[in-house]
Amino acid sequence: MSQYKTHSAFNCALLPFLIGAMVFFFNPTFKNVVYFSAAFLYGTFLMNPDLDMAKKIKLFSLRGFFSIPFRSYSYVFKHRGISHSVLLGTLTRVIWLFLFVLGILYIVYKKSVHQKDLVLFFNMYREMLIYVFFGLFTADLGHLFLDKRLFKWKI
Which helix or strand (DSSP H or E) is residue 142 part of? Predict the structure, then answer.
């Protein structure tokens, strides 16, 4: 089981190789490489599988500030549970963040976002969202690899 700095250093060292492989195999646009890289770095530093321990991060720090959406997440999911699952871990954090943002929008605008608007949003930004999701997903793979949990298909 590695520590935060080890996970971060490993993923940062892995990123150039991932970008090279992505450019070689998929020939993405520059924007998509930026989306992937930004999501990968966000997933590495701020949205990793260890967010199930977010309640223990100092709130008054940069990392603590970015952990605010996941503080309640850490009360729902136990450490090394579903958040350390290969695909479901990334998916639960993405859905949790999505619901948090929708909740903030509801509080600010006092009305809910309609399903039609969400479908339109996802259709307009489909390609970008795919690259962002795979940036987060591959960052999680690096984390799980170091935790030696990559091949434990726990659901």
Answer: helix 126-146
Per-residue model confidence as pLDDT tens digits over 52-109: 898 889 989 888 899 999 999 999 988 888 888 888 999 999 999 999 998 998 888 8
Whether 152 is in a domain gets the answer no
- The count of domains in the chain is 1
Alpha carbon distance 74, 85 (integer Å): 15
Give the DSSP letter of residue 47.
S
Please enumerate, as own/partner, the contacts of 143-150 that have beta carbons within 8 Å and a separation of 24 or more: 143/7, 143/11, 143/44, 143/48, 143/49, 143/50, 144/49, 144/84, 144/86, 144/89, 145/10, 146/2, 146/6, 146/7, 146/10, 147/1, 147/2, 147/49, 147/84, 148/1, 149/80, 149/84, 150/86
H or E stretch covering 2: none
**CA 16 – CA 12 distance, rounded (Å):** 8
Angle of CA points 138, 50, 95, to nearest 5°: 65
Domain that holds residue 46: 4-146
Question: Does residue 155 lie in a domain region?
Answer: no
